[in-house]
Design a protein that fits this description.
alpha/beta, 11 helices, 2 domains, 7-stranded mixed beta sheet, 7 strands
Length: 258
């Protein structure tokens, strides 16, 4: 795991790869990605060219919020993984559920939710925008919602909206995920079919990621083969789930995703 470290004058540096007890307490960011040329990448951080991209606001937000909680280190998927290394990308995807689970703080940045008052309306309408946020439609954010015990939600203007506990009713009604599953316990208590249904309306940019983003939800690991297609990726995911559970219980679960 490679982390970002806050330095003076709003600068950041990347740590070497850390493992086990080397990993300090850290915050972690959950977000939806900008356009490809506007998201801050690993290379942007290394070359110090990240400030010119729209995604820089999220990086600064996460760093500032982490500092408020006494955390110097933080992790953002877009720029802490060197995606030019297939081995590093595969390790990160297989470990990502655990990285979110072990974070000291998880911040969700909702780029499409504002707390500003709408013209002619005296009330803040962020709750409606919250329920309709794109964040609830993406494949990777399912594990980012479920893995951490505590999740704090922020608007595009960096205003705290609530946490997973205070917003559990809205989250449940939006996602149909049982409230009990939001409390941070083992997901193994929920049926395979039910966990698959939590993902049925979610989408990923790369088709194989629809399966790969569920590895942590089912507590399995497998190699990544980009280019194999969604059906083959799900077939391999089913095999790993069957192997881990000892039963052929995922046939119906996979069919609900077709």
């Amino acid at each position: 795991m490679r982390l970002l470290r806050s330095e003076e004058n709003d600068k950041f540096s990347l740590t070497p790869t850390l493992r086990g007890t080397e990993i300090p307490p850290y915050a972690i960011l959950s977000h939806t990605w900008e356009a490809d040329n506007q998201e801050v990448t690993f290379k942007d951080i290394v070359d110090n060219t990240w400030r010119g991209k729209a995604g820089h606001r999220k990086i600064q937000f996460c760093a500032e919020q982490a500092r408020k909680h006494g955390l110097r280190y933080f992790w953002v998927d877009s720029c802490c993984i060197d995606k030019s290394s297939s081995a590093e990308l595969a390790e990160a995807i297989n470990c990502m559920f655990r990285w979110y689970r072990d974070a000291a703080k998880c911040y969700v940045y909702l780029s499409d939710v504002s707390t500003r008052k709408h013209s002619g309306c005296p009330e803040l309408l962020w709750e409606s925008a919250f329920r309709q946020s794109r964040w609830f439609t993406r494949g990777w954010t399912l594990q980012e919602l479920l893995a951490p015990l505590e999740v704090d939600f922020f608007s595009q203007d960096c205003i705290w909206l609530g946490d997973k506990k205070s917003l559990e009713l809205q989250i449940h009604e939006t996602t149909s995920i049982p409230v009990e599953a939001l409390h941070g316990g083992s997901l193994s208590q929920f049926r395979i079919e039910d966990r698959m249904l939590w993902a049925v309306k979610r989408r990923t940019t790369i088709e194989e990621d629809k399966a790969y983003s569920l590895l942590g939800v089912f507590d399995v690991h497998m190699p990544l083969i980009y280019g194999e297609g969604e059906k083959k990726a799900f077939r391999r995911l089913k095999e790993e789930i069957d192997r881990a559970s000892g039963i052929d219980g995922s046939r119906m679960a996979y069919s609900c995703l077709r």
